[in-house]
Amino acid sequence: MNKVILIGRLSRDPEMRTTGSGTTVTRFTVAVSRPFGTQNGDRQADFINCVAWRKQAENIAKYCVKGSQVAIEGRIQTGSYDAQDGTKRYTTDIICDNVTFLGSKNSDNASSISMPSEPKETIETADLSEDPFKDFGEEIALSDDDLPF
Question: Could you report the per-residue pLDDT of 123-139, keeping only the tens digit for each?
Answer without folding.
Answer: 555 555 666 666 666 66
